[in-house]
Amino acid sequence: MKRTEMLLQLQETPVWDMVIIGGGATGLGAALDAASRGYKTLLLERSDFAQGTSSRSTKLVHGGVRYLAQGNIKFVIEALKERGYLLKNAPHLTNDQPFILPVYSYFQKWYYGFGLMLYDYLSGKLSLGKTRILSRKKTLLALPALNPKKLAGGILYYDGQFDDARLAMDIAAAAAEHGAVLLNYTEVTGFKKEKGKISGVECRDRLTGELYSLQTNVVINATGVFSDAVIRLDDPQHLPMIAPSQGIHLVVDTRFFPGGNALIIPKTDDERVLFAVPWNGKILLGTTDTLMEHIDEEPRPLSEEIRFIISHFNRYCHTQIAQKDVLSVFAGIRPLVIKGKKQSSSETSRDHTIVVAVSNLVTITGGKWTTYRKMAEDAVNNALFVGKLEKKECITEALMINELPLSIGKNDPLSIYGNKAWSIGQIMVENPLMAAKIHPDYAYTIAELNWIIANEMPQKLEDILARRMRLLFLDARAAMDCCELVAGYLQLALEKDEKWKLEQVREFKILAQQYLLS
Ligand SMILES: Cc1cc2nc3c(=O)[nH]c(=O)nc-3n(C[C@H](O)[C@H](O)[C@H](O)COP(=O)(O)OP(=O)(O)OC[C@H]3O[C@@H](n4cnc5c(N)ncnc54)[C@H](O)[C@@H]3O)c2cc1C
User: Strand, helix or coil at 167?
Assistant: First the structure.
């Protein structure tokens, strides 16, 4: 993907079949769905791809154990089906993850044991492995950090795991390969209408200030927590439908949680869920569910949320953590859809919602990363109908997003690039200097950096260190250590001056400070 080529196509296309606003999981999924059906598709993202909620998840491809406890069986079955498709269609970025749920009484053992057997049963042929009830001894062997006090045993079950922002990048690339045009840093600022129906969008390139006025048959609004703001560009009287709920994660070293298994506490004493999940060589601890009044493009963790995670982790594990042990902390905001009168996040829907406005604007929101494909299919089906486009069938259920070549093992650090790994490896073969790491403690190389800059449209230092490479999320201090080096390569490729580079480094360091607690 090259931004200059995308801009050229933007200028040369008189009418789009579909314009999609928002480059998170939902919008990118819709772009891939529409383009793979053969529609002339444009996606506009005002920041970077996956800069919002879609890079800040718990990284689980899951049916949602807690929704089962709420009796939402239909939602769980659909998500488990989507879990199976995602693991099959993006094998290079997904894996099975064993989870252990510790139990503290015999009632809990049978209650959760039965529930998680049902969870596995509901996944049918797409099961990732049998749920098993573990003795106290086996639970402690599987989770060496677990505090043994009052422990009665555990339940082992399987779910999926993935790299959210890297998957977003690959969905974007797959959509582009099917002919979609995708632009980051391009904000939709208004709609054009004919006889009350939307006939186009106004947008602004945030990097150059250039304005564009585009024609389209139909528009999909996939802007997550910003859905209400975009609907208001169409209908200023629109009443809010989103209840933004913040969730944070802390990242710590694996020595605090060794063993490779994940922990789930389904109900802490204040009725929350606590996860400790291995991810990219670190441990992710999360999450919270805090209703927010304001939505920030770069949400900040609240001190109460940080305290909750640290104190609860320390209650369940004997490997105690303190603020100084946190390598990175990040916050994301769930686009929950209000069901009735807004009171708490439990009164919101976790399922996805589609609303078609009188103007024909199709808004899709809610749901979760795991179900992005189904959300995209539903959104595009609605868009075809209101845009009066010729109906073509959705093909994404069996559409590979990227593939892992047989010659590359899952443990190879380049495996995250799927079928592009070979060309990155080739850069290092041709010039061994390119195998140098950007930071001594992490596997990311200069070859990857150059490949990313040439192919994945990063426009800012943050785009590389937060989302193409996950260093900001894994270890904010390490990201700061190598940011000048990375900025130098980006400066060269984008033909920017020294002042631009220094400004990028300054902005990035300010951002990275927010990911640190000490
Ligand atoms: C803490 C947390 C943990 C989670 N964990 C999981 C998990 O483990 N598994 C799972 O399946 N799901 C999880 N989710 C849910 C999942 O992350 C979200 O459902 C999903 O990422 C939402 O994607 P989206 O595309 O709808 O929104 P976003 O990713 O927010 O994308 C919307 C995009 O629209 C852009 N935009 C806004 N206005 C405009 C405009 N005017 N013009 C152009 N672009 C615009 C924004 O910049 C943004 O990038 C989690 C969510 C949170 C918050």
Answer: helix
Q: Which residues of the chain have pLDDT under 70?
A: 340-350
- Longest CA–CA span in the chain (Å) reads 70
Amino acid of residue 8: L
Interaxial angle between packed helices 483-494 and 498-514, expressed in degrees from 0 to 180 and rounded to the nearest 10: 140
Q: Strand, helix or coil at 173?
A: helix
List residues bridging with 279 in a β-sheet.
282
Q: Tell me phi and psi for residue 324, to 5 degrees.
A: -65, -20
Contact (Cβ atoms closer than 8 angstroms) between residue 76 and residue 63: yes
Dist. CA 269–CA 355, nearest whole Å: 37
CB 420, CB 436: distance < 8 Å? no
CA of 24 to the centre of ligand 1 (A): 5
Report pLDDT digits (tens) over 205-237.
Answer: 999 999 999 999 999 999 999 999 999 999 999
Enter the pTM of the model. Answer: 0.96
* Dihedral over Cα of 158, 164, 167, 168: its sign: positive
Determine the pLDDT at residue 343. 42
* Helices (H), ranges, 318-371: none
pLDDT given at position 342: 45
Q: At residue 140, what is the residue type?
A: L
What's the CA gap between 239 and 231, in Å, rounded?
A: 9
- Alpha-carbon span 260 to 142, nearest angstrom: 8
Structural domains of the chain, with CATH:
3-53+166-241+347-398 (3.50.50.60), 94-160+243-332 (3.30.9.10), 413-513 (1.10.8)
| Residue-level length of the chain | 518
Which pLDDT score is estimated for 340?
Answer: 60
Assess whether the previous peptide bond of 287 is cis (omega < 30° from 0): yes
For residue 352, the surrounding DSSP H or E stretch is strand 352-356
Could you tell me the two tokens for 265?
Answer: 């506490």
Q: How many angstroms separate the alpha carbon of residue 320 from the centre of ligand 1? A: 32
Do 222 and 30 form a contact (C-beta atoms < 8 A)?
A: yes
Q: What confidence score (pLDDT) does residue 71 get? A: 79
Q: What's the confidence (pLDDT) of residue 209? A: 97
Q: Is 227 close to ligand 1, i.e. is its CB under 6 Å away?
A: no
Ligand 1 centroid–CA 222 distance in Å is 9
Residue bearing the CA closest to ligand 1, atom 35? 22
Ligand 1 centroid–CA 472 distance in Å is: 18
| Minimum-distance ligand 1 atom for the alpha carbon of 371 | 11
pLDDT at 268: 82
Q: Compute the distance between CA of residue 407 and CA of residue 123 in angstroms, rounded to an integer.
A: 31
Residue 370 is encoded by which pair of tokens?
A: 């795991």
Residue type, 429: V
| Encoded amino acid at 395, one letter | I
